[in-house]
Design a protein that fits this description.
The protein has about 140 residues and is α+β, with helices and mostly antiparallel strands. Helix content is about 30%, strand content about 30%.
Length: about 140
């Protein structure tokens, strides 16, 4: 189990690094709507991100997400596996709850759904996280 978590973490870092380099090459392009109210190079700024709530372990190791994977994802998130936001462009954000606690309880009810998350965005070493302050299902908009 520890090996799986470690492998998932390494894969997440690699995917985030690739996503960052793609985002940098697209910096001036229109249509990059994953983030609103946020400059890519900023740290600790408020951002709004839209995407699917996923359990990072299954997503990073096997690409599993969506409605068919929702039951497994709920079990993984309930057991403490990390939770993330997968944007339409394929970028993945590690989701952290208030006061740097896991966001699992906050997001598990939205597994496999499209949400809009607002919070503080931080990046270090190519890995990005959003410290969730507000979450709203996109179906309610």
């Amino acid at each position: 189990m520890r090996y799986l978590r470690f492998a998932a973490f390494i894969l997440m870092v690699a995917l985030t690094t690739v996503s960052m380099s793609q985002a940098q090459s697209m910096k001036g392009m229109k249509g990059m709507n994953d983030m609103h109210m946020m400059n890519m190079s900023s740290h600790g700024k408020t951002a709004t991100i839209q995407g699917e709530v996923v359990d990072l372990s299954c997503y990073l190791t096997a690409g599993q997400h969506g409605a068919k994977h929702a039951s497994c994802a709920r079990k993984c998130i309930d057991s403490g596996q990390p939770v993330g936001i997968l944007t339409k462009t394929g970028k993945v954000y590690l989701a952290i709850g208030p006061n740097s606690k896991p966001a699992n309880k906050l997001l598990v009810q939205y597994v496999a759904e499209q949400v809009e998350v607002t919070g503080q965005l931080n990046e270090r070493g190519g890995m990005e996280e959003v410290s969730v302050k507000k979450v709203e299902p996109l179906s309610s908009k």
